[in-house]
């Protein structure tokens, strides 16, 4: 009876302590407790919040599961590419979205913690970095492809947003930068588009073509402005043959 009471008190104390831990470190704290505390000392599962459940599941992710999620994400990306080629843009976006769900969130610290929890000491730091880097590269491509779909649908704002997401995962993604510049140009942000294109490889025919289009747009705007400005001084004064008395 006394032992059960101690267990109950310890469980309640741990539950209170967990509830006071900031959200951003709850995962790591729980992970550090698991190896040293008997299972009966943990709070009842039903009393843990949804976020903590998610943290626990994430921490227990294995290298195999990470690789599987990456591969699944790539498969959805390829399905999206096929739909894009067939001009089935809704299906393409759906496939790319599923790819994002699988590739996003494979954070380096979580993977490292997962390996420690599963006792897999055979995975070194460099391999962990490579896993995350590869996932981020694939995720950048997916976001860039989503931008391409939105360009086809003339949804410039979404195209810019997806291109930005792609560049966050891989700042060197030239296609994402080009697609962002295309969306900026189409939305009327000519200067921003030109400045972004200046950072890209000028030997790329697509880049040169878009630069030429932007230059033509700027020239047309200048001509229109000059004509409007000139017209202000070319107007003849109103007839004064019937002055108002």
Automatic annotation (TrEMBL):
GO cellular component: cytosol; endomembrane system; membrane; mitochondrial envelope
Biological processes, Gene Ontology terms: negative regulation of apoptotic process
Signal in keyword set: no
Keywords for this protein: Isomerase, TPR repeat
InterPro entries assigned: FKBP4/5/8-like, TPR-like_helical_dom_sf, TPR_rpt
Keyword Isomerase: yes
TPR repeats: 140-173
Pfam families: TPR_19
Coiled coil: none
GO molecular function: isomerase activity; protein folding chaperone
PANTHER family: PEPTIDYLPROLYL ISOMERASE
Name under which the protein is recorded: FKBP-type peptidyl-prolyl cis-trans isomerase
């Amino acid at each position: 009876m006394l032992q059960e009471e101690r267990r109950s008190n310890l469980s309640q104390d741990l539950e209170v302590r967990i509830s006071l831990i900031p959200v951003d470190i709850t995962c790591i704290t729980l992970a550090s407790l698991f190896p040293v505390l008997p299972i009966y000392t943990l709070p009842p599962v039903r009393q843990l919040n949804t976020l903590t459940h998610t943290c626990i599941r994430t921490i227990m992710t294995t290298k195999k599961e990470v690789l599987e999620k990456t591969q699944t994400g790539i498969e959805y990306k390829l399905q999206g590419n096929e739909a894009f080629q067939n001009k089935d843009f809704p299906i393409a976006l759906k496939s790319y979205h599923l790819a994002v769900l699988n590739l996003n969130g494979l954070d380096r610290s979580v993977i490292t913690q997962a390996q420690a929890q599963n006792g897999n000491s055979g995975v070194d730091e460099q391999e962990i970095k490579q896993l995350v880097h590869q996932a981020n590269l694939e995720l950048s491509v997916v976001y860039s492809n989503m931008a391409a779909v939105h360009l086809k649908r003339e949804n410039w704002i979404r195209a810019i947003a997806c291109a930005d997401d792609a560049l966050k995962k891989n700042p060197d993604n030239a296609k994402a930068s080009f697609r962002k510049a295309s969306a900026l140009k189409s939305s009327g942000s000519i200067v921003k588009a030109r400045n972004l294109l200046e950072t890209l490889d000028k030997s790329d025919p697509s880049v040169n073509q878009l630069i030429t289009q932007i230059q033509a747009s700027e020239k047309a705007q200048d001509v229109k402005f000059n004509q409007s400005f000139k017209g202000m001084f070319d107007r003849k004064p109103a007839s004064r043959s019937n002055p108002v008395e």
